[in-house]
Amino acid sequence: MRSEIMKKYIKTVSLFTIIAMLTACGGSTKLADGSYEGKSSVYTNPDGSDAGNGYGVVKITVKDNAITECSFKTYEPDGKEKDSEYGKKQGSVANRDFYNKAQKAVKACDEYANKLVQSGNPDDIDAISGATINHDQFAEAAKIALDAAKAK
Q1: What is the pTM of this model?
Q2: What is the arrangement of strands in the sheet containing 66-75, beginning at the earlier edge strand?
Q3: Is the pLDDT of residue 73 over 70?
Q4: What is the mean pLDDT of the chain?
Q5: How confident is the model at residue 29 (pLDDT cuts 50, 70, 90)?
Q6: InterPro entries, from UniProt (predicted)?
Q7: Which residue has the higher pLDDT, 1 or 85?
Q8: 112 within 8 A of 127, measured Cβ to Cβ
Q9: How far apart are CA 66 and CA 56, in angstroms?
C-alpha cells in the first residue's frame, strides 16, 4: 500500500516538474521592435498541381516583445491582390456561389491578422471554414515574419 502511494507521489511530482520546465522554456523567445514581412510560397494542390491560388503576405509590427499590428493580404499568382473584385469573371459576377466563397476567403484575411495580434502565435489560430488555403498561407507567412523579428 505504501509503495503505491509513493509511486503516485513520484508520478505527480515528475509531472509538475515537466510542466514547470516546459513553461519556463516556452516564453524565452524575444522579438525585436520593428516592422517585419513574410511571404508564403505559391499554393499548390496536394497532388502537386498549381491550384492558381497564389500566395499570401503578412506584415507585422513588434513593440515591447509583442505584435501590435498585423496585416495579411493574398495575391493571385501574377501578383494581383485579391480584393473586392476577386471571384468575378471579366468584371461581373458570373457565378454567385463562387464569388461569395472567394469574398469569404478575402474577408478572413483581416480576421487571421487580428487573431495574430491577440495570440502572438500563428499555431494558435484555427482555420476559418471556406478560407483554409488562406489559413495555410497565413501561418507560413506569419512564421517567416516572426522568425525575422526574433532578437539575436
Answers
A1: 0.76
A2: 34-39, 55-63, 66-75
A3: yes
A4: 83
A5: confident
A6: FMN-bd
A7: 85
A8: no
A9: 22
Counting Cα atoms < 13 Å in the Cβ hemisphere of 37 gives 4
Domain boundaries, the chain: 34-149
- Report the C-alpha gap between 14 and 124 in whole angstroms: 27
Q: Evaluate if residue 82 carries a pLDDT over 80.
A: yes
Q: What is the mean pLDDT of residues 55-79?
A: 96
**Whole-angstrom distance, CA of residue 83 vs CA of residue 93:** 14
Distances (CA, A) of 25 to 13, 19, 33, 67, 72: 19, 10, 21, 20, 29
Q: Is it true that domain 34-149 has CATH number 3.90.1010.20?
A: yes
Beta-strand runs (E) in 44-117 = 55-63, 66-75
Please classify residue 99 by burial: count the beta carbons closer than 10 Å to its beta carbon, then call 0-12 exposed, 13-18 middle and 19+ buried.
Answer: middle
Show the cell assigned to 109: 484575411
Element (H, E) at 37: strand 34-39
- Cα 25 from Cα 79, distance rounded (Å): 40
